[in-house]
Amino acid sequence: MGSSSKGDTTSDGDTSSRDSPPSNSSIFSESERVLAYHGPRIYEAKVQKAELRKKEWRYYVHYLGWSKNWDEWVGAERLMKHTEENVMKQKALEKKLGVDKSSKSGRSAQTKQKSSTDAKVDKEDLKSNAAKGKKRKSDSGVEKDTLSAEKFIKIQIPATLKKQLVDDWEFINQQDKLVKLPRSPTVDEILSKYLQYRSKKDGMMSDSIGEILKGIRCYFDKALPVTLLYKKERQQYHDVVLDNVSPSTIYGAEHLLRLFVKLPELLAYVNIEEDTLTSLQQKLIDFLKFLQKNQNTFFLSAYDGSKVSDGKAKGKDD
């Protein structure tokens, strides 16, 4: 999934060293629509706050069309004025990077990524494929989703897992490394461990938890090749997922965590009652806390050192 550079993410509480704004004020103003670098790409964003910290302006930005989970503090070097010239730069960069809107992981420029699978979601037990999203084009030709951001379930990813996503992106896209497969524990094993953990903690086997975990497994298997892989990982996928083997028996926590970034978008197309959605949200957050608690056990600290060759053995650059 696309992630921000580690050096640019700053805590909201880092306001102890604010200074009075200088006469020339900030380069960008609050509520201003801007273009922001995030990873290798440029996205539309809105400045929520502007503060002077240690004689340097910092901006709290919201990426338009994305969950507030991605809001962050950035420096002026990450932002550009929303001008026609800079929009052209954005489009040129996307073209250069060879954006694959149907299968890349991470943000797509100015829009939320949707799965292209055709199966519909069963609202009772979530035993479904990634929901099929419909898109329309605005006057500018930029694809916009028909669903509003308000319909998205909010899944707050713990800070240490956000850093895990950042490291994951950097290992693959900047250091040309891959997750060595098959992983241990696999996604299936992690889901089983969580079910055992909840059963022991609650003193009983919860049918609802079991059904949700089956749904997560199904989402993962269907969404992985469509929207969870970086380009550099696709050849590896074709090499290891053979004879209808389920990806959840091969991949591990690194790719499972990426699913939780996509879940708000996928679940937006599910017709679930509000009470059920609230309960689901709480269970998904509890599962993320379980991942966080076992982060050192479930996640790799380093990826495979073999380099990825551009466009050949293990896929193209993302």
Automatic annotation (TrEMBL):
Residues 94-103, 115-127 have a biased composition (Basic and acidic residues). One of its GO terms (biological process) is regulation of DNA-templated transcription. It comes from the Eukaryota. InterPro entries: Chromo-like_dom_sf, Chromo/chromo_shadow_dom, MRG, MRG_C_sf, MRG_dom, MSL3_chromo-like. Residues 1-29 have a biased composition (Low complexity). Its main location: nucleus. One of its GO terms (cellular component) is histone acetyltransferase complex. SUPFAM superfamilies: Chromo domain-like. PANTHER family: MORTALITY FACTOR 4-LIKE PROTEIN (PTHR10880), MSL COMPLEX SUBUNIT 3 (PTHR10880:SF15). This is Chromo domain-containing protein. The lineage of its organism: Eukaryota, Viridiplantae, Streptophyta, Embryophyta, Tracheophyta.
